[in-house]
Structure of TIM-barrel fold metal-dependent hydrolase:
Amino acid sequence: MIPRMTVKTLVIVSAACVGIGVGIWRLGSLDVTDRTSKPAEALSSPIATATVEALPSAPVRKSFDDLLTQYGPVPLADAHNHDASDFKYDGMQSMWKRDAMDRVVLFGDVSESSAIRTDAYAWEAYKDRPDFFVPYFSGFDLHDPSSLEVVRKNLEQGYFGLGEIAAASYYSPVVSKVEWKAKDPMDGFLPQIYELCAEYQAPILLHMDPPNGFVIDKLEEALAAHPKTTFIFGHANAYNSPENIKLLLEKHDNIYMDFFAGFTVLNPESTNRIEDFLPVIKQFPDKFMLSTDSGFGLASEDAAIEAMYRVLDAISDPALVKKVAYDNLDAILRNEPATKTQKEAIQKLNAAVDVTKLTKLEAGKLLWVK
Ligand SMILES: [Zn+2]
C-alpha cells in the first residue's frame, strides 16, 4: 500500500503533467479501496482536514440547515442514484423529504446479471411515485445480441434511460469486476444500443475509468458516430480535471456531465476544488447536472446531498443554480416522447385522452399517479 501522503503528492504531481493517462485514476482507486473499508479514518485524516480547511468558504461555512433554507425551494434532482439495490430507496424517503429532493434518477447494480432484478425494483419505485423517481436500467449483456431486445423492451415499457453502464472500467474497485462491462465505449453492441437510445431520445449514463487516454478516445468516437444520442458522463468530476471536461464539451454537443458533488466537496482524494470547476460550468451552463452516486465512498448519502447544496452555493448565480440543480436534466427527460406501448395503455384506460404529443414524463403520470 502506498502511504497516503505519497499518494497525495504523486496525484498532485501527476495532475500537473499533460496527458498523464491513467495515473490519477490508478492512484485514486487504490485509495478508494482504503477509504471504503475505513471511512471514519479517511474522513478524520490530517489530509482530509487540510483539504476542508483549504476551502475559501471554510471560515464562514454555512450549516446544512442554512443551505436548505436558502436553496430548498429550488427544484433539485439527483441524476445518478443506486438506491434500487436492496430496495434502499424505501428507507430514504424521509431523508429526501428533509433534504428537499424533488427527483431521483433511480437504478441499482451496474452491468451485471443482478441488475436485471434491481432494474425491476427501480420500476416498482417509479410506479409508486412517478412524479419523483426516474427509472434507468443496466441489466443487459452488451456483448450479446439479446441486449438490443432488452433495451428496446425496457425503453418501450417506459424506462427513461440506460444507466449506470460500465462502458470501461480498469481501476474502480467495484465496477472493474462486473461481468458485463465493456472494454471501451464502442465495445460489443454499444453502437447499436446508442442508436436505440437515439430512436427513443433516451439518455445513456456511462461509467468510464480511467477518464482519459484510449477510453476517452473511444468515447469521442461514439459521440461523433452517434450525434443524435444523448450521452451522460457519469461522475465526470471523479479523478478528472476541469480541463478534460472542457475539451469534451467544446468538441461535442451530445455529451452532458454528471457532477458527483460529494467527490469534489468531501473526498480528500479530489485534486480539484469546486472553485476549479466553476469556469467550465459557467462556460457550458446547459451541460451539467448534480448527483450523489448514493454517497459512494462518503460517510453517508446525506453527506452527498449536502455536497450538492454546497456546489449550488458555490455557483451562486440563481439562473445557473436552477439549471444545474434541475433544469438541465429535466430538459433531457422532457424531450422523450411517450412510446407506442404507453399510448396504447393510456387509451385503454381512457380513449378520450389525446396521446399524439404526449411525453414519457406525462405518460408515466397518467398511467401511475394514484
Ligand atoms: Zn454510480
About this structure: The longest strand covers residues 161-169.
